[in-house]
Recover the amino acids of this structure.
């Protein structure tokens, strides 16, 4: 009996301007910037990680800001919507907050277990806040949003695929998910206790245009596994399905393998350890540029290349 995936580990998306990205996610959404590093595969550009106070797996949204990258397009073969979890009573707070910062949102709708507030970041990335009962995680108390209303981490991710069967089969027959709901062309799956961060929705969109991964779109979705041993087992299982899977890559804060699921979306399986406190104290996470050992020799050059970014001192001014 193989182990199941323990939920979403992180979601990685593509942004344009690094400072505007920090202003929006650390400022408006009140997430903690838990790591400021570079893209290990393109070290002349940043890689930002936002999360809860500790950067707990299941709370981490990461960005590759590539200035000047063209805008992508949401469509099939993509994770199209990243949904965060907020307490049931916080919906009103967030409507007021988005209004205050001049961010357009759709009128909240009820979907499955929650009230959904949909909006986009400045690059067009589709986001949702899902207000629902049963969120157990604490909010970060030191962010720009009061702890009681703070984003708790992921609620779910929406995968948009042309035909849902092959993707659904991978989720249920290999990754340990079970179907828990269906509304129109939306199919919900859950793993473990099925709580926030352990849910995925498949939107079946046959004939819909194909997505283009570029600015304002999700690059990949990473799933959690507890250890290096379980990751190696996953690698073998995925290879046995006939899918191309990468060797284990050292991402400094976790270890990763990548493969493309049959619907075309890039999946990663990432280990929970070692986490973001491996190279800086918890108190000062995200405040200075961190580089992996193999890039420390290039620090001076990288610091010249990268435009400095700063945390929003006060909340960004409403437009
Ligand atoms: Zn990743």
């Amino acid at each position: 009996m193989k182990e199941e995936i323990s939920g979403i580990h992180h979601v990685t998306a593509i942004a344009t301007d690094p400072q505007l990205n920090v202003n929006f996610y650390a400022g408006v959404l009140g997430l903690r910037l838990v790591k400021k590093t570079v893209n290990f595969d393109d070290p002349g550009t940043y890689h930002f990680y936002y999360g809860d106070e500790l950067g707990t797996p299941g709370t981490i949204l990461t960005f590759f800001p590539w200035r000047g990258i063209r805008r992508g397009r949401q469509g099939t073969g993509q994770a199209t919507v990243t949904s965060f979890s907020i307490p049931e009573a916080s919906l009103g707070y967030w409507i007021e907050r988005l209004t205050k910062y001049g961010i357009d949102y759709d009128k909240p709708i009820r979907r499955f277990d929650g009230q959904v507030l949909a909006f986009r970041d400045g690059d067009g990335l589709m986001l949702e806040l899902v207000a629902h009962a049963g969120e157990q995680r604490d909010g970060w108390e030191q962010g720009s949003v009061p702890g009681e209303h703070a984003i708790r981490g992921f609620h779910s991710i929406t995968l948009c695929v042309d035909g849902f069967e092959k993707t659904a089969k991978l989720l249920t027959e290999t990754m340990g998910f079970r179907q828990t709901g269906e509304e129109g062309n939306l199919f919900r799956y859950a793993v473990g206790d099925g709580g926030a961060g352990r849910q995925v929705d498949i939107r079946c969109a046959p004939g819909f245009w194909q997505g283009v991964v570029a600015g304002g779109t999700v690059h990949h979705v990473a799933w959690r596994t507890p250890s290096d041993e379980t990751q190696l087992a996953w690698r073998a299982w995925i290879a046995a399905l006939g899918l191309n899977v990468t060797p284990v890559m050292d991402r400094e804060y976790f270890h990763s393998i990548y493969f493309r699921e049959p619907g075309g979306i890039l999946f990663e399986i990432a280990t929970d350890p070692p986490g973001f406190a491996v190279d800086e104290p918890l108190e000062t996470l995200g405040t200075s540029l961190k580089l992996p050992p193999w890039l420390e020799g290039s620090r001076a050059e990288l610091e010249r290349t990268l435009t400095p970014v700063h945390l929003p001192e006060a909340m960004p001014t409403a437009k």
Summary: The domain at 8-305 is CATH 3.10.180.10 (2,3-Dihydroxybiphenyl 1,2-Dioxygenase; domain 1). The chain is about 15% helix and 35% strand. The pocket of zinc ion is lined by residues 10, 12, 220, 222, 256, 268 (CB under 6 Å).
